[in-house]
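step 3/5: co-fold with fe (ii) ion
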Amino acid sequence: MPASSHFIQESAHELTWSDTLLLGFGPMDDTHREFVSLIGAMQAAPVDDLPGLLEALIVHVQAHFAMEDEWMMKTDFPAQACHMNEHAAVLQSVLKTRQRLAEGDIARCRRLAEELADWFPAHADYLDSALAHWLCKRQFGGKPVVLRRNNQRALGSRQ
Ligand SMILES: [Fe+2]
Ligand SMILES: [Fe+2]
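step 4/5: write tokens
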């Protein structure tokens, strides 16, 4: 993940859900909605709420990545190493943030949220979408059909 600037004030660019993030595999889309909601909350929350939100994020990220990793392994997804490595690196960064928080660096929570807000759309677009197509093809015999609203606004205020 890219290095980010050092600030702790509320973000002007919270990650918000947009249907452009839909990938067409229902269980994955549901998980991604939850992820986006958690990140948006971490970007906007008062500083005192950040430790609790970080714990919720850790629970989510562990389950989210484990679920996708398991789908890849169970279905012999061809390009799984790259995708799983990225999950592992992000999880490590999230857990490192918990360690930094314990050392008193609460600003690191906000920076993590900013980094994840930057990271997620591309991860979903390049890696999760390929997995969603693969899973839909195996399950239904074809590419996912995605019905999107608000196509012109990809990520709310981020565009
Ligand atoms: Fe994902
Ligand atoms: Fe993923």
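step 5/5: annotate
Residues 68, 83, 87, 123, 127-128 surround fe (ii) ion (ligand 2) (CB under 6 Å).
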